[in-house]
Design brief:
Two copies of one chain form a homodimer. Chain A is of the alpha+beta class. Chain A is 33% helix and 26% strand. Chain A is built from 13 helices and 21 strands. The first copy, chain A, has an eight-stranded antiparallel β-sheet with strand order 15-14-11-6-5-19-20-21.
């Protein structure tokens, strides 16, 4: 492995998920990236990790299953799978998710199968997901370049060049130069993001008003006692970790039921192995009441229909239009990257840590506090070069937060 | 994939494990052989398989875990793993095991860790193993050439040549020419093996006496109502399958507690990632009372000490010295191959199907009928070019079964 790959593996394990002595680590990784997974494993053990468990995935196997398996299997999440994720989460494992999927891997699959599988596994894995979303467990999502993903991002390049260029883009986005300076660069970057957090938290906004020429004209209400977060989290046990590498966002929780207007997505969304283009949401009282797309509409509608909470909002994230990933001027068809190039929202579950004391609340208390509950959490991008975001405070005064896609402060 | 690889995949899925419409299939395969696993999956779905589940393995991850994980993890088989194998077995899944391990993958690992892991997983997976051993489930073991395994078999060849040659040996052993004739060849071969079964069953031997110049001088008693088997099994549901590809053996169950003498193994034994050489067993009343080896003795002793039944015998298998695999004059360091080049025994669990009505008996009934019970089942080779095997019938008459390593009939 090259110096950059080694440094990237170390960044993910030692800084991203920050695996601790005596802790277990579950790595989700495609079989085609076994070399990288083995390197992550070696670094984890070097840090005194108790055990590394590999959750291998494979695009081709997933696609064959969705296309050809018996229809009944999509309504069931097997007990072993529930035990696997739930038990490791309860044991306090760290979770490292390495993404490399073909964004269109499930193109042509019956969207009903995907919807049923999403629902059955989402419901069965509810406890695991809740533990992770309230930061009982450290978790990090990173991306690995793969042939099919690279071909989608750089369709005009030969395969090998496309893959090499995608790796370079990943390294740039995660601040890996191969000289061992990545962690230091991330500490500096995180400190900058946390300055924005402080400013935004001090405003105590009631709502934000989004507008741009694409057609977005949308007011969203923020949860009372909301907290903006950025640049990394801490587990409930006090261990710092970085959930997303890269991350350029500052994010908080909307108030369920608060918000109205029209949202026009500014980028395609890769969801469940399909690319959804031209998304438009009409929102009334915080609920998506109309959802249309030029491509992949059924996948989108199915995702919103998984449960009641899926058509309410779970996250508000501000990303400057001049972020490094945005400046790369590339559509990645991978939310981990695209969401860090543009302001975005998520429909579905809210993060408990985005309101004061949320991580210590029961689910019912969180719902009472205005946080949305769902088995879904899907980010979609709205940021543009001309986006304006204007905040309204409790006393009705208005504050410009973003102008022409960038923070004014 | 080449024609030969395609034909091999088809042989394993459609003939070996003979997956049925509506049945599920669990494939165990190294991540480095994902291309082959995907091909097996496609063939299974083509046959109407309900779902193919991939149980991915990786030598490097296994070795790192054994060397570096916390000592406590080797005493526990996680609940998800028990549910995985037991639930799929109870559902009537077929199991395809694709072996490609480096025979020395765990060289240098603390043998105590291996012993404890063998015991904890063996005990936790008892129900799964029993279902499989009594043929509730169809199962097949096949082998895939890998770089490290090939380097061990052909140490004087460059890596690529060694791997290519090992593939050719595998294809020859499993009768794959790439012309689609493999299944037909296997049907003819199985019929020939079944002729031997008939002859041996008709003799109703009480015991067999093994002798050769290597030093083996050993009498082993056969279970009452024993059945010789060969050339494939049937599941309890009546579906034919071929547990091992290749297979050249005719095998039956010894009577627990019956047998005495000295056994000198004729080949090294690859067991739990270690190669054991120069094995000698002193046997009294069917029990291995002394076990020595020139190399890997601790691994051997640990295997025999896993439970009480591990030092008793579970299988008697006759293989002519002029079998095709034996004539290849190669040591494969993989029991699936080496056991088909030489007469062998197994210490540990006996197959219920090797006595009349055994598959319908409870465990206690099988033990009462003289079958050995253990979480282990380890084949080791004793056949040589000068081996003689003489059977004794109920009336005391002696019948020469093998002379100079080959059947006399």
């Amino acid at each position: 492995m090259t110096d950059k790959l080694q440094e990237y593996a170390r960044l993910l394990v030692a800084f991203g998920v920050n695996v601790q002595r005596g802790q277990k680590l579950v790595i989700t990784c495609a079989v085609d990236h076994a070399v990288f997974a083995r390197a992550c494993m070696a670094i984890a053990y070097e840090r005194g990790c108790a055990e590394v468990i590999l959750n291998w995935t494979d695009d081709d196997c997933a696609r064959q299953r969705y296309l050809k398996a018996d229809d009944k299997v999509f309504d069931v999440c097997p007990e072993w799978r529930v035990r696997y994720f739930t038990d490791y989460a309860k044991e306090g494992c760290a979770f490292l998710y390495l993404l490399s999927e073909d964004p269109q891997n499930l193109l042509g699959v019956d969207p009903g199968r995907i919807a049923r599988a999403t629902k059955s596994s989402g419901e069965a894995l509810r406890e695991y997901r809740e533990l992770r979303m309230k930061n009982e467990n450290a978790w990090t999502i990173g991306a690995l370049a793969s042939t099919k993903w690279a071909a989608m991002v750089f369709p005009d390049l030969p395969a090998a060049e496309a893959e090499a260029l995608l790796w370079e883009r990943i390294f740039a986005a995660v601040r890996v130069n191969g000289d061992g300076s990545a962690v230091e660069a991330w500490r500096a970057h995180a400190a900058k993001l946390k300055e924005r957090v402080k400013i935004l938290n001090d405003y105590r906004f009631k709502s934000l008003h989004y507008q741009n020429a694409l057609g977005t004209d949308f007011v969203i209400e923020l949860a009372e006692n909301h907290l903006w977060e950025a640049g990394g989290d801490k587990t409930t046990g006090g261990v710092p970790f970085m959930p997303n590498l890269p991350t350029e966002e500052v994010f908080t929780a909307p108030k369920r039921g608060g918000g109205s207007g029209l949202i026009v997505a500014s980028m395609p969304l890769s969801l469940h192995g399909n690319v959804i283009e031209g998304i438009r949401f009409v929102v009334r009282d915080g609920r998506i009441v109309e959802a249309t797309a030029q491509k992949g509409e059924e996948t989108l509608r199915n995702a919103l229909a998984v449960d009641e909470g899926a058509s309410y909002f779970g996250e508000i994230a501000l990303v400057p239009y001049d972020s490094p990933i945005s400046r790369s001027n590339t559509l990645y068809y991978e939310t981990l990257f695209d969401e860090n190039a543009a302001c975005h929202f998520a429909f579905g579950e809210a993060y408990p840590t985005n309101i004061e004391g949320g991580a210590d609340m029961s689910k019912d208390e969180r719902i009472a506090a205005g946080l949305n509950d769902s088995i879904m959490h899907v980010d979609f991008m709205v940021g543009t070069a001309d986006l304006s975001v204007v905040g309204t405070r409790a006393d009705g005064t208005e504050v410009v937060v973003m102008q022409d896609g960038n923070f004014v402060f």
